[in-house]
Design goal:
Largest sheet: none
Strand content: under 5%
Order of helices and strands: HHHHHHHHHHHHHHHHHH
Distance between the termini: 23 Å
């Protein structure tokens, strides 16, 4: 019966046609297709050997990165006993994406994802090995940490757009959203497990140099895997898209501007867990080393959130809801009276971060289209990583001035803004998110 209606679909109003087309797709492909759409992002690893190897390599590299990041935070606080110093180290590490992110996106497309990633992995491994050697020799101080963070940040700046390109090359278009989610899972899997290594070093009173050593080794492992994976990946088609015009595209496209603001809000809201953690442990009457467990909880929350089956398609409304949940978790984190509640809030913040990051990233890529993807995703890298230095600097300065609790409140406020706009200005959401016809068509795609 439904098959007889197919020729008449074009004669129907657009919203009815989209609805009937969706029903036809369900009958034609069966319920398995619907379940695949609503499955967890882990399903993208099935049947894709190249992406599985990439995920393994990136998770290994991110593990080492977060082992070093947590060691840097604890070292900076031990050396200077100042939240501002911790903020300066983080500021130094993430300033490069803000200053060079636009050029890094251009360079990644011109040089290719494989050479760019291999070069950044070598530079990062060399920097981590140098810091390890200095720490073994007891020559490491706060200024050396800041210098090492700057070099690591430069490598990260060029690696980020290259990772975006690599993900796009290894999966088909319909798998892009779960692939981006798994890329976030890889980053946060490292954030969950890396600090555990640092905490073990603290408990055993072993030098933090071993965390830097583990980071150097992880970059080497990722480089080997990248060499193998890219041997089998399809070549990126040459595109002469106007990558340099990424900011111009954002200025002329209201939906892209809103999504970039939401990307920055995620980074700003979760920053207190890294920077304010050591100071919050004082108010909770525990040792500063306990702040490492906050980072572990944040990463673990992201990993746990990846196992939740998605029942919604990427949309601004979904991202705004996840951002509001992140803001609520951060408020609980900074005002919790006991450490177990702060850890639980960090766990919830991690799950919210995964949803907000993967949804905004997927909607941006889809809305930009293949011709504008390079330019828009380069600006995404600036919004995601470039907002980090400002957040860390504000965290460090305000944390030393008005305390970590009120600082956490201030940084959580931008994450609440999108949901307030949805509640107060629903007509704006319709304009940004598309009509019901568009949403139905996106479901079918």
């Amino acid at each position: 019966m439904l098959s007889r209606l197919a020729p008449r679909v074009r004669e129907m109003p657009m919203h009815i046609a989209a609805f009937v087309d969706t029903r036809l797709d369900r009958r034609r492909f069966g319920i398995k297709r619907v379940k695949e759409i609503r499955g967890t992002p882990w399903h993208v690893l099935r049947g894709n050997r190249g992406f599985r190897w990439y995920f393994l390599g990136s998770a290994t590299s991110d593990f080492g990165t977060w082992a070093q990041n947590s060691a840097q935070v604890l070292l900076a606080y031990q050396l200077a006993h100042s939240v501002l110093t911790v903020g300066l180290v983080t500021f130094a590490q993430f300033t490069s994406p803000l200053l060079l992110g636009r050029g890094a996106g251009v360079g990644a497309y011109r040089l290719g994802a494989r050479p760019t990633l291999l070069g950044t992995q070598f530079a990062s491994a060399s920097t981590a090995a140098a810091l390890a050697g200095l720490d073994f020799a007891r020559l490491l101080n706060a200024w050396v940490l800041i210098a090492g963070a700057i070099i690591s940040g430069l490598a990260f700046t060029f690696a980020l757009p290259a990772r975006n390109i690599t993900v796009q090359r290894l999966v088909s278009a319909d798998k892009l959203r779960p692939a981006y989610a798994m890329d976030s899972v890889s980053y946060n899997l490292g954030r969950a497990l890396g600090p555990v290594l640092t905490m073990v070093l603290v408990l055993l009173r072993i030098s933090f140099a071993w965390a830097f050593t583990a980071n150097a080794a992880s970059f080497i492992v990722f480089s080997v895997i990248l060499w193998v994976v890219n041997m089998h990946a399809e070549e990126e088609p040459e595109r002469r898209s106007k990558v340099r015009d990424g900011f111009r595209i954002a200025c002329s496209d209201e939906r892209i501007r809103v999504l970039l603001f939401m990307v920055a809000a995620v980074t700003i809201a979760d920053d207190p867990i890294l920077v304010l953690g050591p100071a919050l442990t004082k108010q909770l009457h525990v040792a500063p080393q306990w702040s490492g467990w906050f980072i572990v909880a944040l990463g673990a929350g992201t990993v746990c959130g990846s196992f939740r089956r998605s029942k919604h398609q990427p949309a601004i409304r979904l991202a705004a809801t996840a951002l509001a949940a992140l803001a609520l978790c951060m408020l609980i984190f900074v005002f919790a009276p006991v450490i177990w509640l702060s850890c639980a809030a960090a766990l919830g913040a991690g799950a919210s971060c995964l949803v907000a990051n993967s949804v905004t990233r997927a909607v941006l890529a889809e809305h930009a289209g293949p011709e504008r993807s390079a330019a828009v995703m380069a600006v995404w890298a600036v919004a995601w990583a470039g907002s980090k230095p400002f957040a860390s600097l504000v965290d460090g300065a305000l944390g030393s001035w008005i305390g970590p609790q009120w600082t956490g409140l201030i940084l959580a406020l931008p994450a609440l803004a999108p949901l307030l706009v949805i509640v107060l200005l629903p007509e704006l959401v319709v304009r940004l998110g598309g009509t019901p016809t568009t949403e139905c068509a996106e479901y079918r795609a």
